[in-house]
Amino acid sequence: MRLRPLPILFLAILLTPLEAQKPRARDLGIPLPGSPGPLNAITDVAGVMIGHTTLIQGEGPLVVGKGPVRTGVTAIFPRGSDSPDPVFGAWFALNGNGEMTGTTYLEENGYLWGPVMLTNTLSIGTVRDATIEWLVKHGRNDFLFSLPVVAETWDGGLNDIQGFHVKKEHVFAALESAGAGRVPEGNVGGGTGMVCHQFKGGIGTSSRKIAVDLGGYIVGVLVQCNYGRRPRLSVLGTPVGAEIMDLKPCVTKGGKSTARAQAPCTPELDESGGGSIIVVVATDAPLLPHQLKRLAKRVALGVGRMGGLGEDSSGDIFIAFSTANAGAWNDSTVSTIKVFPSEKMNPLFQATVEATEESILNAMLAAETMTGGDGHRVYALPSGRLIAALKKYGRM
After folding, report:
1. If you write DSSP's letter for every residue of 272-286 in order, what string do you get?
2. β-sheet bridge partners, residue 219
3. Can 276 be counted among the known catalytic residues?
4. Catalytic residue selected from 206, 257, 276, 359
5. Is 155 a catalytic residue?
6. Is the pLDDT of residue 376 over 70?
7. Can you tell me the mean pLDDT for 315-326?
8. Domains and CATH numbers, the chain
9. Which of 7, 104, 199, 341 is deepest in the core (most CB within 10 A)?
10. Residues near 297 by Cβ (< 8 Å), separated by ≥ 6?
C-alpha cells in the first residue's frame, strides 16, 4: 500500500496569551537601556499589525521538494490591513548581498504602499506575486500597489529552500491573520528557519518611547535575524558568544533529525558569520522620507552593538516608516503635513539603536532549538548561561 505524504504543519500564527511565550530579555531582568512601550513591540506604534505563517514538516534526510520544511512568511501592515493610505518611508542597506523589492519606487517617491513582507530568499518572488494578488482581491488595484516591499534571508541550512514550499495560500494566511497586540517571536513566520550568531534566530521585536516634552512618540522595531559569528556576539558589552563557544550548529549522527537536544552532533565547519538581517522600523513621529532614511541608517549601530559587522556575504537591509500624517498623499492638491524638527532627532536615533539591539536578543531568547534536513541542528541561546555571563562581567 502506498502511503500518502504527511501534510505540512501550516500555522497562521495568531496572537496568544503571554504565558505561551518564553521569557523575553526584560522578563529575565536584563537591564537594557531605554523605556519600552506597553508591549515592548513594533505594535506599540498604533496601526501597525503583524501576521505570520509558519511552515514545519518532516525530518530526516533532505529530499528537495519534499522537505524537511522549516520556513514561512511574515506580514507587517503600517496602518492596518484595511487602510489604503500610504505612509512616508525610506530604506538603507548596510551591506547589499540580499534583496528587498519595491525600494526603487520607495527611494524615488518616499511613499510605502501596502505591507512589508518577510520570507526566505528563494520565495521572494512567490511572496511578491501573491501579495499583489491579495491586494487586488481587496480592492487595491491601482498601479501604486503593484510594487510591494518583500525582503528575504537565507534559511537553507535548516529548510528545504530549493523545494519552494511557500505558496500563495501561505502568503494570504499571513496577511489575513495580521493583528495588533503581542507579536509572536522566535521560530515563526519568515524567521522559522533562521540562525543568529550561530544560535537559533528568527523574529524579534522591541520598542522605545521618547520623552513627553518631545511628543512621547514611539519607535518600534521588528527583526528577522540570520547573521553573525558566535565569538562576536555581545550583550550590553559582555562577550556572551566567547563565553558560550559550545552549542555550535552541528549535524546529528547519521543525519537523523532526532528531537533529542543531547543526541551526538558534529559541529559544522562554516565560521564565516555571513547571513542576513532584515529590520523594519516603525514610528508615529511625523518624519519625512529623508528623516526616515536617517533613522534606518541608525539600525546598523544596533546590529553592531550585538556584534554584527555587515559581512560581505550578508544582506543587511533596513526599512523605516512613519504612521503620522495620515492622508498626506493625493494626486491633485497640495497637502499640509507636520514635520518633526531634524535638530531634535537624537532621541529617535537612540530609540532605534536600543530597540534594534533588544529585538535581536528577544529573537534569540524566544527561539527554540531546531533540527532540519540531514540532521542539521541549531541550538537555542541558553538563557541561564546568558545571565551567568552578564553577572560575571558585572552587567547584572
Report:
1. ----EEEEEEEE-S-
2. 208, 283
3. yes
4. 276
5. no
6. yes
7. 97
8. 9-16+33-392 (3.60.70.12)
9. 199
10. 92, 318
pLDDT at 141: 79
For residue 314, indicate whether it is catalytic. yes
Note the pLDDT tens digit of each residue in 107-141.
Answer: 999 999 999 999 999 999 999 999 999 999 999 87
Sign of CA dihedral 331, 337, 343, 349: negative
Residue 82 pLDDT > 80: yes
Cell of 79: 496602518
pLDDT at 332: 86
- Measured at the CA of 249, the angle between CA 22 and CA 53, to 5 degrees, comes to 50
For residue 340, the number of C-alpha atoms closer than 13 Å in the C-beta half-sphere is 30
Alpha-carbon separation of residue 355 from 17, 37, 132, 187, 188 (angstroms): 23, 11, 30, 20, 20
C-alpha to C-alpha distances, 197 to 91, 190, 245, 275, 380, nearest whole angstrom: 24, 17, 11, 9, 11
For position 262, what pLDDT does the model report? 58
Residue 64: exposed, middle, or buried by beta-carbon count in 10 A (0-12, 13-18, 19+)?
exposed
Backbone angles phi, psi at 366, to 5 degrees: -80, -25
Which one is catalytic: 206, 316, 322, 374? 316
Find the mean pLDDT for residues 384-390. Answer: 98
Q: What is the pLDDT of residues 330-373, one digit of tens each?
A: 888 998 999 999 999 999 999 999 999 999 999 999 999 999 99
Q: Which of 123, 257, 314, 322 is catalytic?
A: 314
- Number of residues written out for the chain: 396
Instruction: Give the C-alpha separation, 50 to 180, whole Å.
Output: 7
Closest among 95, 22, 87 to 49, alpha carbons compared: 87
CB 325 within 8 A of CB 291: no
Classify residue 307 by its DSSP letter.
T
